[in-house]
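haha ok so turns out i had the wrong file open the whole time. this is the CORRECT one, sorry everyone. sequence first:
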Amino acid sequence: MNIVVVGGGEPGKFGNDFCNLAREQGHNVFILSHKDYKNNDPKHLHTDYAERQFVVETFNQLVNGIDNIDIFIYNGPGEGYPSGPEYFKSTAKINSMAWHINLYITVILPHVLSIEALKKMSKGSKIVFLTTSMPLDRDDYTDMAGYAGLKAAQTHLMVALAHHNDKEAIVSSVAPHFPYEDRPAYLKIFNKVYDYILTFDESKSGCIEPIHW
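then structure:
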């Protein structure tokens, strides 16, 4: 399969582990990163995420040699402003630009790149987002308004793409927890996420798949 991953460059993290395993299994994997990992891989390009025009141009350069994208994965950053109790006190200084950057990276950019990916998709192709299943009525991580809030917006984007794309592509979000500090536990969850992405079908389109222990 032709698999395109945005955010697959950092060694030891999900995106890079996914790309390495997929390549080991014979898939044709293309990676777009936000920094240069200097690996001399022609199928691994980098671009400045802050410049929309450059991101689109680099994405299209990356996939120029293929006719069909089977799977597109947007593996965006795991943190998002504002995140921290200090941002919600009367003494807080709010950084409006940081809010906008988070919105751009978490919602706008996956929308833009999903549209670009759809141009090379056909029935049964897949778009996958990495999201969270954090509920509103939680007692932990209550300061993570930026991360949880904009991942929720991304999830609504996923639902809209699932119902209204014109290529009969399947669109789903997966909500894992990766305990990187515990490698055996991480690998157990990683394998579940990997298998889900490669095997889910139209019955999961428009749905979030939570994957934990």
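The beta strands are 2-6, 28-33, 44-46, 71-74, 126-130, 170-176, 208-211.
again sry for the mixup
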